[in-house]
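Board notes, transcribed. Complex of a protein with IRO.
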Amino acid sequence: MDLTGQIANFHFNHILLNAAGVKCQTTAELDQVLASPYSGSVVTKSATPMVRPGNPSPRYYQLPEELGSINSMGLPNEGFAYYLDYVLNKQTDKPVFFSVAGLTKDDNLAMLMELEQSDFNGLVELNLSCPNVPGKPQTAYDFEATRAILTEVFAFFTKPLGVKLPPYFDMVHFDMIAAVLNDFPLAFVNTINSIGNGLAIDPHTDTVVIKPKGGFGGLGGSLVKATALANVRALRERLNESIKIIGTGGVTSGRDVYDLVLCGADLVEVGTQLMVEDTPVFERLEGELANELDKKNYQSLAEIRGKLQTIA
Ligand SMILES: O=C(O)c1[nH]c(=O)[nH]c(=O)c1I
């Protein structure tokens, strides 16, 4: 059975990997994800030029009844140089994603210039959708700003680059972001990031469950699946076929992976459920995915990729 994926010149023997932010802040975590026989890759925690402690805790909370999670981490990371050192020295046959999330356009341009001039030979993910830095907007909700930064990036950047997008909820917004992205030689888009600025309440104390931003945080896990499916499908229908899609959001079972591939995903990322189960989740999900294909006598993901049917 062929459960592989392809982005640019990179072949992935497995399509599952972590979502940026989960199990990827330290070299030990990155090594664990890469070492899993059932992960196809790893993505680093989104990096800023300097080390960041992030927001005050509690800043992550698992919602009840396996609904998902809410986080307002605040972009904690070990700093750009830490992750560059990791990716330059790590011996692995698996492609590696380097995520950057500068707080300013200049920070992003500086990090991308350093990556361009380095020996890094993996893929770069420009995170345009962090919802948790107080006072900072999710860039990709501003279509002009998104066009402006991609114009400056592609004036010099020649390595495989993709963007991490926030979820969109309006058909016109799908059209508008696709019109921007189709003007650039992107290797991929990764959709969705968490659904920004949700709120959860502890029923015993009548108090919010995380400290930053009065309790507002990004939502992940099963409760975001329908939005993730819609964004993967909408962008697959609108983007040039040269722009591949990483489907992220709401994956707790092999059927969820299957559904994202049906909508057009080339790779699939796991966030909240990876927090819950740790790296064994990759083996469980791939086994369940294989079973879903078996049920319908499919031999490869290629047979179902993008093949979601509508009602005539
Ligand atoms: O709070 C975070 O660090 C964070 N949390 C998210 O849910 N998405 C992001 O892109 C980021 I940079």
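The radius of gyration is 18 Å. The pocket of IRO is lined by residues 21, 46, 71-75, 101, 127, 129-130, 132, 193-194, 218 (CB under 6 Å).
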